[in-house]
Amino acid sequence: MFFELKGVTVQFGGLTAVNNLDLAIEKNQIFSLIGPNGAGKTTVLNTISRFYRPVKGEIRLDGQNILSLKPHQVVRAGIARSFQNVELFANMTVLDNLKTGLHPILRSGVFGSSFALPRFRREEREALRQAEELLDMLSLGEIARETVKNLPFGHQKIVDIARALMSRPKLLLLDEPVAGLNPTETEKMGEFFQRIRDEWGITILMIEHDMSLVMKISDRIAVMDFGNKIAEGLPDEIQNHPDVIEAYLGVRDESA
Amino acid sequence: MIKNGWNLYRNHLLLTLILMLIPAFIGGQKHLLTIACLVLIYAIITMSLNLLMGFGGQISIGHASFMAIGAYASAIFTLKLGFPFWIALPVSGFFTALIGFGVGLPAVKLKGPFLAVATLGFGVAIPELTMKWDKLTGGFSGMFPEKPVLLGYTFKSDLSLYYLIAVVTLLCTWLIRNLINSRIGRAFVAIRESEVAATAMGINVPIYKALMFSISAFFTGVAGSLYAHYIGFISPFDFNIGISLTLLAMVVVGGFASIPGSFIGALVLTLIPEFTNHVAGLSLVVTGAALILVTLFFPDGLVSIRSKLKDLAGKRKVVG
User: Fold this and answer.
1) How many other β-carbons are positioned within 10 Å of the β-carbon of residue A70?
2) pTM across the whole model
3) Scanning every residue of chain B, which has its alpha carbon at the shortest distance from the alpha carbon of A165?
4) Which residue among B169, B197, B243, B255 is least enclosed by CB atoms within 10 Å?
């Protein structure tokens, strides 16, 4: 299996946020994790990012044990992420945010950088090229030199995802990537996710509340409620699953 | 990058031109040349403190202690170990960097006010240490480092000393600028902006914080070495906590995270005591007033005046 969680349990004090969770994600899938607020979805993502330590369980990517890594080593192992409420470097330009996403790949050290040695210059040119290419792909080319904090939230959301993509991860974790985007932007993002899955071979684990997007682009869906996985399957199976309807879709506003 | 790169070179060229021409403007006034030398030495320190505070979001209340370590290291290397000046200058920088790394390690765990207090302790301890360890440092009576010698040439005249300091300043400015625009500099700013996101980008936050202190200490140590050999006399009083606070004020007055701001801050706060020292205590009052006025009207430092004027001009156009 490409990426798997086995029996992962996360507790805060006495509260069990994630209970004995098993997830298995195949390569080149868009795997969605859905569930009502407080179900523990973001906790799962934060555990994969090594911000939280599970009390038991295993997390493996391509056979490599993720739990032995420090948080800053996770991206080098091939797992990048976006954040629910965007965690951008607000006073940096869009380009610099994206270039920071290349941190694990760039090699120049203190000496080479401060003396602007040829390798450093080459690296910086290449970093700029990659960042601009990605921005053009997301039709954000014209805001490349804007300071991030001056951008509308929708653009910040996309920049947050773009930054995560800079390191060309094997697995991309997305925490509510289209929350706050309008329907047109949402549709474009959905197409973009499918494109990076198909063209770049990136596997995506996504938390999302926008059901039309989830049902449209997901290859597989797991549903969580109160820290437990209550269902897993193809989009059609999930839509008609009685437990899911009861726990999640049943209490949802139909217009959403 | 092409635009950025050109801007970088243009700014550096401009700075080089200004520094090279200053003696011509000053003419033969020895006193003003001395001030110019001190401004440049403090500008190096302000830049390196700005690297730490403005770019990296950390705080150091006791930065004059790094200057002291650089100055005393250079004095000891040349006087007691017989190092030539041109070796002692970078070596005292590296020595200070080593100490800086050690001081930076607690910064990994300490934040905001706690880090401020820890570095304050460092700022008090080092002058005390140089006072008490008189076998090595001469204690109260200080040390007398010799004038810099390079390839058999002794920098004795004020003009030659000025140009030596100017060249070192330009070199330090160039290095710091490159660093800020590199992967390392972006990591520093990333840590200031969001440690969580920085970690998610693969930045080893604890190591980079210590590195930040270390690099800042390096340049401050080099400036300390320059200071020692330029003045020709150092004592614990040259690096007391009052100097540390002045360095802090230079960063605030000039502008956070700005290289030109660092020069402006160093200039203003070196000039204030020079022009107010005929009345005892006046320089403190003026410095305090300047700090309050600047933080009130130019919270981004004096360097923001230009963009503010631009805004004003822009507004007028719209109104007119």
Assistant:
1) 10
2) 0.91
3) B201
4) B243
